[in-house]
Amino acid sequence: MKIDEAREGRTARIQLEGRLDREWAEYLSDTLEELLQEGVRSLRIDFAGVTYVSSAATKVLARWHQDLVFLRGDMRLLSLPPAVREAFASAGWDPALEVPGSSGASAFRRSYWHSRTDFATSGQYELSPCAPDATLTCRLYGDPGRLAQASFGSGDCSVVPLRDNTFGLGLGALGETYRECQERFGELVAVAGCAAYFPSDGARMADYFVGEGGVAPRAVLACGLTCEGSFSHLLRFSKQQEAEAVPLSELATVALDAAGGKTAGLVVAAETAGLAGARLRRSPGQGAGPVRFEVPAVREWLSFAPERTHAMTTTVIAGVVARAPEGPLAAYLRPLGGIRGLFGHLHAMVFSYHPVPQRTVELPVLLRGLFASHQLRDVLHLIWDDRGEAGVGESALLRGVAWVGPIARVG
């Protein structure tokens, strides 16, 4: 089998030659995955030189076609010999050879967003209103300053339900009581009734709970925040062609502008160029003592890498960003990306790669799909490492969707 590809912008043409059996179908699948990771959304696959197509190959192509439809893209199969056309027809593809059950090519023409377009240094942004008057209420838990002063006792923690209309983050653990959670406090993030955290008790994998049937995840929070309410805007973004990636601080700035205020809550689903993050190695529960941030003691408490991690994965980021924050919220935020006056507190769930749809999509549906079909790899507190050339810098994204809302009240 021979696979040749040629690209022009967001369109790729693939020329196949030989037998497309199960083994070569996997090679083709890898090629398609790489193209989608690089931003291709329109595929033309030429079968003129193909002598045989297996059922495994038709299944692979159907799966990737469905992903492209979900991403507002399209796939066309070209120049099929009679035997190959018959194989696709027997697998349920219609005569137009667009997708099983299609009534023809017109059903899969690409549609385009109709919304305002803005350009920033590295990213291209499109803003659409969800509910322009919607706002969020932010609730604060615990005392973040206690991390460097003392351990967290039962009186310092709160049991918090993480319902469908809530997103939140902080230092905590999934569970019902302080006693069962105190040795496992770690980075935690919850969005739309789905919660994930990385236990600090020596666990090698992040844990999660997806709320179903009216049962919401519950977490014991040592310190953190939640936002409840509705988002006002949907922000689609991608890197500009000449840019390597979209810095997280740039996206946060655009989100704040979209929310029209000094403080905003946001949830981001994105494909990553790399994440700058850290997580606890040890729980600061009762008796553990304060977290030490000086070198070398910090290495006993925090896990972090000397470079950005989790490139070419899919992440869901939740948090709060603000310009020159004041009042109680200021203690929960840290400088973000070196932009003067920009602060934030953001946590990330990291999944194995899945293309993020560039269309209007329901956040709960997207999130539950990730938990159902993709591996949860990590949960991180996102940082800005400002040590110059020796530092990691900040997280960077390739493309994605952000839900944004102004925070009207902090309590």
Notes on the protein architecture:
There is one protein chain. With 411 residues, the chain is α+β, with helices and mostly antiparallel strands. Helix content is 18%, strand content 39%. It has helices at residues 22-37, 55-70, 82-90, 178-181, 248-259, 298-301, 363-373; strands at residues 2-8, 11-20, 42-53, 74-78, 116-119, 123-129, 136-141, 158-161, 166-174, 186-191, 194-197, 207-210, 218-229, 233-239, 246-247, 263-274, 277-280, 302-304, 314-323, 334-335, 342-351, 376-382, 396-410. The strands form 2 sheets. It has a 19-stranded mixed sheet that branches. It has a 4-stranded mixed sheet with strand order 1-2-3-4. α1 runs parallel beside α2. The protein is elongated and about 75 Å long. Residues 95-119 have low confidence and may be disordered.
